[in-house]
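Practice record 12: protein with molybdenum atom.
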Amino acid sequence: MKNRGLHELYAENPELADELIWGREVETVSRRGFMKSGGLAAMAAVIGASIPFARYMPGGLIPAALAQSNEAFSIPGKSGLIILNDRPLNAETPAHLLDDPVTPASRVFVRNNGVPPSTWDIDPLDWRITVEGEACGQPKVMTLGEIQTRFKHHTLQLQIECGGNGRSEFNPPAKGNQWSTGAIACPEWTGVRLRDVLEDCGMTDDAVYVAYEAADSHLSGDPTKQPISRGVPVHKAVEDESLIVWAMNGEPLPELHGYPVRMLCAGWPASVSGKWLTHILLRDRVHDGEKMTGQSYRMPCEPVPPGAAVADENMCIIESMPVRSLITYPKSGIEVSLGKPLDLRGHAWAGDSLVKAMVTSIDFGASWQKAKLRKPVNRLAWQHWTTSVEFPEAGYYEIWARAEDDAGRSQPMVLPGWNPRGYLNNACHRIAVMVTA
Ligand SMILES: Nc1nc2c(c(=O)[nH]1)N[C@H]1C(S)=C(S)[C@@H](COP(=O)(O)O)O[C@H]1N2
Ligand SMILES: [Mo]
């Protein structure tokens, strides 16, 4: 057990992990089977406190107090991100470092599929973007400089979230970057509307999809292969908030985030927001570029049992991301004194939808209290929430946060439906709090 991560152990066999770690007998029937008192003493000993609401604690779930075991690693321009892979570079942001209302560039997660282009010596105004494709009336090559002078500028705060955010919790495990909760960011972006550029290039009536190609290269080094080329249906591409951006928080785009220019279609898996943009393709069919087909960024069209193999033709392209939230203050593992209310805050978002309500629980979801929830600064920006909780006695607690969107869809308490590639885990975020007398 020494050589195996807690997450790996829980992912493979949560009941066995409970047993190994806590020495308790667990019901094998249900992953959510409640704890038996045998292991309680062991768990309380490791955590270092009693667990007042232990009777509600689901089995097979890593206590939030122990769930953040990865070490921080440094990447130029970043602060406190956790590296998941260094080739290609993938790094996520711990929840408490996402506390700012507008995410600073230093805290925006990084998801690369290939090797970024070398751009340190380019003239950004001279960067060329080709607009072409079956549904493009007048194919054009435009420089970024021309795009900046010809079209109206827009600045919006927009959230981007990787489709695989939360993947690390699926069981059986899904291959790919083992994101926990940190593949989400909501900086402010400046650019022009994608729609304005598409109209200028004479988008025809048979346009179905708008896709990107980019300047990064495939990991294999094969110049004929692209690392990723995805897109969105025309209705999403022509929304007011779909942009071609060159600035993040008023500064040129950082190299890791697509310098000098990227596409940005918020609320959908961030894989539709192509970095290092070189081509905009107006397609007369669903785009068939790299990572559009097969099982990439697709979910089973109908729910499947955990571990099932799903044929490609039964996998559907992910569109809007599901409702989700984070507790960004306090940091998990905080110690507080009994008798003092604890202020909490965080963000909530729901893909293309609005978040309508936000609730928190201190008793493993047995009861919930309503938080104050603000409106987004603009459509497709995350929303801020605050609340204050009081604890009845000293001991170990978990705070769970749960958002509900305007269509009445809530976050699942533990895990949503399993899927082969481990997408769309929007389970409640949990933090550990130790209350001392
Ligand atoms: N050209 C290019 N664009 C890309 C990617 C990439 O690897 N290459 N990764 C995509 C994926 S999967 C995600 S989640 C987001 C991540 O954006 P970020 O690194 O700016 O946070 O960029 C998307 N755009
Ligand atoms: Mo992604």
